[in-house]
Write a structure and sequence with these properties.
- This protein has 379 residues and is an alpha/beta fold.
- It has 3 domains: 81 residues, Alpha-Beta Plaits (2-Layer Sandwich); 107 residues, hypothetical protein tt1634 (3-Layer(aba) Sandwich), CATH 3.40.1520; 119 residues, 2-Layer Sandwich (60s Ribosomal Protein L30, Chain: A), CATH 3.30.1330.
- Helices cover 44% and strands 23% of the residues.
- The protein has a 6-stranded mixed beta sheet. A 3-stranded mixed beta sheet has the order 1-2-5, covered by helices on one side. A 3-stranded mixed beta sheet has the order 13-12-14.
- Strand 10, helix 6 and strand 11 form a beta-alpha-beta unit.
- Helix 7 packs antiparallel against helix 8.
- It is extended.
- It is found in: Cell outer membrane.
- It holds the Pfam family OmpA.
- Keywords: Cell outer membrane, Membrane, Transmembrane, Transmembrane helix.
């Protein structure tokens, strides 16, 4: 009996110990190695993560410097901090660059993020302007409903006034958006230039497609628009400029452009202007055709581009030169027949724009051609 009781007690004791062990919590044993593993991962991944973030900062900063033509600036990157060094032309230019670098965004795991947390400037003294009387220049374009403003202005006030004038043309149909790409830089601060810029915006804003420039104090315009808008744009252009001079103005009514292109294409589709073999000398048999082309060109609006095309026989360089020479020969022939020289430009394309198969004699004959078309605002 005593032996049995002792065995029974030992068995019961084992059961108690076994059951007690099953109820011990996991955390005291599992948390420590898991925490240690996380620490090791953090130590191992830390330098890599820092490198990835720093490279994102470098890329975003380089993109900002390149996009804003800030060749004068040098960026020093440490982690997510950037120091900008160099000599800006004006204090405002330096401050603007700091703001742009700080606001730059880059793609990240959860969308675009700003990788730069702090930007500091260590600029030298602004570089004195070597040409304090440099004149403002602009190029304003409208295409597919977007009015784009590019150029230089003397200050933010001028920039804001021009942008506001452009925004005033937005109607949701003709002009749907304004892209303000004007740059504040050291140019002459003269209210007359702002007046010209407002005039340019008003003019190009009337176009379906158009480009207006003010370069070297010369205002030029190429504008495509419906026939019923021609008188309005002519009235705008006829107003005297407060500064500068009027350059080339091409007002291109859509219907007239289409008619001109169609008539010239029809003339040159069935009969080609013939040249001597591998030469830019026009064959006398093409004189009547040239006169018909001149008659049609006289009724065309704007500037005409004469394009010289060749087949693919021979070298690409030789074909380019031959295309140029033939286009120029046709230009001279049309000038002789009464078309003003300033309305004609010549350009050779060689064999780059075939319209038929160059592997056949018939195809090569089709590719050797002269085409004439109205220069568009988008060209």
């Amino acid at each position: 009996m005593a032996t049995f009781s002792l065995l029974e007690k030992r068995t019961a004791s084992r059961r108690v110990r076994y059951r007690s062990a099953r109820r011990l919590p996991f955390m005291p044993y599992g948390f420590v190695p898991a925490f240690g593993l996380l620490v090791l991962l953090w130590i191992g991944m830390g330098p890599f993560a820092k490198y990835v973030i720093e490279q994102s900062v470098v890329r975003s900063t380089e993109q900002v410097l390149a996009a804003n033509d800030a060749g004068w600036a040098t960026a020093v990157v440490s982690g997510q901090q950037v120091w900008l060094e160099g000599q800006p032309a004006t204090p405002m230019e330096g401050e603007q660059l700091v703001s742009l670098v700080r606001a730059a965004r880059m793609p990240a795991l959860f969308g675009d993020e700003r990788p730069v947390t702090r930007v500091r400037a260590r600029y030298g003294a602004p570089i004195p302007s070597t040409n304090p009387t440099r004149k403002p220049e602009w190029t304003f374009r409208v295409s597919e409903g977007i009015l784009k403003l590019e150029g230089t202005v003397p200050d933010e006030v001028t920039r804001s006034s021009l942008a506001a004038a452009a925004e005033g043309l937005v109607d949701g149909q003709h002009i749907t958006r304004v892209d303000d790409l004007l740059t504040v830089t050291h140019v002459a601060d003269n209210p007359a230039y702002t007046e010209v810029a407002l005039k340019v915006i008003a003019a190009v804003g009337q176009c379906d497609r158009g480009v207006a420039t003010f370069l070297n104090e010369e205002f030029s315009l190429r504008c495509e628009l419906p026939n019923d808008g021609v008188a309005r744009i002519q009235q705008l252009v006829a107003q005297p400029l407060p500064v500068g001079r009027l350059g080339n103005v091409d007002i291109l009514p859509n219907e007239a452009v289409a008619t001109c292109d169609s008539s010239l294409a029809d003339l040159l589709a069935t009969t080609h202007i013939e040249f001597a073999l591998a030469s830019a000398t026009i064959d006398p048999s093409s004189n009547d055709l040239l006169q018909s082309v001149a008659n049609a060109a006289a009724n065309c609006p704007g500037t005409l581009r004469i394009e010289g095309h060749t087949d693919s026989m021979g070298s690409a360089n030789a074909n380019e030169l031959l295309g140029d020479a033939r286009a120029e020969a046709v230009r001279e022939a049309l000038i002789e027949r009464g078309i003003p020289a300033d309305r004609l430009i010549a350009e050779g394309f060689g064999a780059r724009r075939p319209i038929d198969d160059n592997s056949t004699a018939e195809g090569r004959a089709h590719n050797r051609r002269i085409e004439i078309r109205v220069v568009r605002a988008s060209d």
